[in-house]
């Protein structure tokens, strides 16, 4: 253990900040502090280790077991299990779950899934605000929540109308938006009612603090009783814990508070070529970016492999991986990760890998998408909502979604009338739907406009619940037509078979909010850049390294302003550099030089030129600009065919 590591582990002050370049052991230092605290007699329940994602929490918990063992603690698995290791959003939700918090906030922490947000958005459109302006106002509202700014201080004029309607829609359905969670938690913890919920943990250890919103950062500070240590690096900011990270909250952590001990780590561990590359990419963006003063580890070449087309990339790279794995069949496949720039690339690689006999665990692309207005494109969404209703027939937002599927306005007009009816009759959503149904059955006039349509959907929902009540596991998924949907394939594969609807729904919900990799060490990982946060892999294969994928096309588009383009490029730079740094040994970038124009446009590659080839329009593409920007630290370049030939595979 280095001297500074030992100092951090033994730290007995109140507040500290650990800062260091990529791979300098910031997480390691926090985990060793936790282990040392346990060894010194601190109750495991009194420790909170906070991460940016649920997967980072899973990985941290595993590393914690080693850290505890290293200080001679016995029963390490049990002890590690008793320490709270969770992502910021989970921490805030746990606070809001407490009955006292529910009473004080008057809110239920039932967060809208990303696709459910589309129903909310449709209902917001009833305000009449043009869609673009509405989106930008909602974005501003979320930004203010993330900044923990009190609503009455900033909501005025039209924005106040937007906020009021948002509150009304969420109140009537007992629901909450994702970005509201830390806001409500922070306001509660700051209030008199929240006094007992503050300082819940003797020790709060917050990793990747730069990724958190100001609201999340404040919550963590308020939860610490005796000691708070934050670790991070503003140049590694990734938008994964919140839509509005606050790296300044980390940068100024020690200047805005008194008596903060700062530990600056300066040695990067792992393949020095990897960390030097990442540092060079960060420096190309900002001369002040933190870089390592020393590098420790075994030097190994890093490479960029060039293919002609995406198909060649999918085929060639998976053949290569197959050959490499065959050389060492006993090695844990979970130490290998294929990084995909988008869902399409992730699926393509997943399919190719499965075809070659690999088990695969994919992370970062599981959010259910579709169009709720079009039943054919909403099959996964309907299955999710059906499970939700079977698990909890009183879930009001599930009913909101259910009645809206398949209508071009998701019946937001009717929903509005229904809410007015509720106000007039001092009644709830289910009362209104029941009243509409009763009128429809009796052939009476509608209690409110569109009531008949909503009643029809409601009755269909009740019939669905009656038809499937009592079904379990695979049988239930099949009854909901979810068994054939790709979105449910991973869930289906993990089922024991006798899970009831509530259990299944909890499992699906977890994949939407807190997804993690399977524990299976035989499964190769496929990951988004963002989900690399908090992880480490022996080998990373970074696919689709073309401009437009990374950085995103918005970093190039001439339609936006220079400042907008820069913002996208620099945010993506940090995501890229922090992501690929997670390779401890082998790092390979994979790129291709051309693609059918239609594919390039649809997937948002940055097209350099277009030319005709065999009467097909072909887009010429460039490798990710960050690679060349690394200058002398850039990887060596290989042709795809050379790579395969070296393994005797041409
Ligand atoms: N003192 C050390 N000696 C040897 N290896 C170390 C040491 N500290 C950390 N490592 C190893 O270096 C790698 C990076 O460690 P860690 O994840 O703790 O760093 P980090 O600064 O949090 O990384 P990131 O910048 O990716 O968030 C890990 O593989 C870890 O096991």
Automatic annotation (TrEMBL):
Keywords associated with the record: ATP-binding, DNA-binding, Helicase, Hydrolase, Nucleotide-binding
Q: Which GO terms describe its biological process?
A: recombinational repair
Q: Which Pfam families match?
A: UvrD-helicase
Q: For the UvrD-like helicase ATP-binding domain, which residue ranges apply?
A: 1-272
Looking up SUPFAM superfamilies in the UniProt record yields: P-loop containing nucleoside triphosphate hydrolases (SSF52540)
What domain of life? Bacteria
| Residue ranges the record marks as coiled coil | none
Citing just one GO molecular function, the answer is: ATP binding
The UniProt record gives the binding positions of ATP as 20-27
For this entry, the protein name equals UvrD-like helicase ATP-binding domain-containing protein
**Organism, scientific name:** Adlercreutzia hattorii
């Amino acid at each position: 253990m280095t001297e500074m590591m030992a100092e951090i582990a033994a730290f007995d002050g109140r507040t500290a900040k650990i800062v260091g370049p990529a791979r300098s052991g910031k997480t390691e230092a926090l985990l060793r502090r936790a282990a040392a605290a346990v060894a010194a007699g601190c109750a495991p329940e009194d420790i909170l280790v906070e991460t940016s994602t649920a997967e980072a929490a899973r990985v941290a918990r595993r590393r914690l077991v080693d850290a505890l063992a290293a200080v001679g603690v016995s029963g390490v698995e049990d002890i590690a299990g008793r320490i709270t290791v969770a992502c910021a959003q989970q921490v805030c939700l746990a606070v809001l779950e407490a009955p006292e918090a529910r009473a004080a906030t008057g809110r239920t922490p039932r967060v809208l899934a990303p696709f459910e947000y589309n129903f909310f958005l449709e209902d917001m459109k009833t305000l009449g605000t043009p869609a673009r302006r509405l989106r930008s106002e909602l974005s501003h509202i979320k930004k203010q929540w993330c900044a923990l700014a009190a609503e009455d201080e900033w909501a005025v004029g039209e924005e106040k109308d937007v906020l009021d309607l948002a509150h009304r829609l969420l109140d009537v359905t007992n629901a909450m938006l994702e970005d509201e969670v830390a806001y409500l938690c922070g306001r509660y913890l700051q209030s008199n009612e929240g006094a007992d919920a503050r300082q819940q943990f003797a020790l709060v250890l917050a990793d990747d603090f730069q990724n958190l919103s100001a609201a999340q950062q404040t919550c963590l500070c308020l939860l610490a009783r005796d000691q708070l240590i934050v670790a991070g690096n503003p140049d590694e900011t990734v938008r994964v814990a919140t839509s509005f990270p606050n790296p300044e909250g980390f940068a100024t952590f020690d200047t805005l508070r008194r008596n903060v001990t700062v530990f600056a780590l300066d040695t990067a561990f792992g393949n020095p070529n990897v960390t030097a590359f990442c540092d060079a990419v960060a420096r190309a963006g900002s001369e002040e970016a933190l870089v390592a003063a020393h590098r420790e580890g075994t030097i190994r070449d890093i490479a960029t492999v060039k293919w002609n087309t995406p198909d060649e990339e999918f085929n060639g790279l998976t053949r290569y991986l197959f050959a490499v794995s065959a050389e060492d069949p006993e090695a844990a496949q979970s130490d290998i990760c294929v990084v995909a720039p988008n869902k399409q690339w992730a699926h393509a690689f997943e399919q190719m890998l499965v075809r070659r006999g690999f088990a695969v665990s994919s992370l970062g692309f599981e959010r259910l998408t579709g169009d709720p207005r079009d039943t054919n494109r909403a099959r996964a969404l309907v299955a999710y909502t059906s499970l939700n209703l079977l698990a909890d027939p009183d879930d009001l937002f599930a009913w909101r979604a259910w009645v809206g599927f398949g209508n071009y306005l998701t019946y937001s007009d009717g929903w509005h009338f229904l809410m007015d009816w509720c106000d007039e009759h001092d009644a709830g959503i289910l009362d209104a739907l029941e009243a509409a149904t009763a009128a429809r059955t009796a052939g009476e006039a509608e209690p409110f406009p569109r009531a008949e349509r909503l009643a029809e959907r409601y009755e269909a929902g009740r019939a669905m619940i009656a038809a499937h009540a009592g079904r379990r596991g695979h049988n239930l998924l099949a009854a909901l037509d979810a068994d054939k949907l790709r979105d449910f394939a991973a869930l289906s594969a993990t089922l024991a078979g006798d899970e009831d609807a509530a259990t299944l729904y909890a499992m699906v919900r977890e994949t939407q909010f807190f997804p993690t990799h399977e524990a299976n060490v035989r499964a190769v990982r496929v990951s988004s850049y963002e989900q690399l946060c908090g992880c480490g892999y022996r080998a990373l294969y970074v696919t689709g390294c073309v401009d437009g994928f990374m950085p995103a096309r918005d970093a190039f588009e001439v339609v936006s302003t220079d400042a907008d383009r820069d913002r996208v490029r620099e945010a993506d730079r940090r995501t890229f550099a922090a992501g690929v740094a997670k390779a401890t040994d082998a790092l390979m970038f994979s790129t291709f030089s051309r693609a059918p124009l239609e594919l390039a446009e649809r997937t948002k590659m940055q097209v350099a030129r277009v030319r005709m080839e065999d009467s097909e329009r072909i887009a010429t593409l460039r490798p990710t600009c960050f690679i060349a920007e690394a200058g002398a630290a850039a990887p060596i370049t290989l042709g795809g065919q050379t790579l395969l030939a070296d393994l005797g595979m041409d």
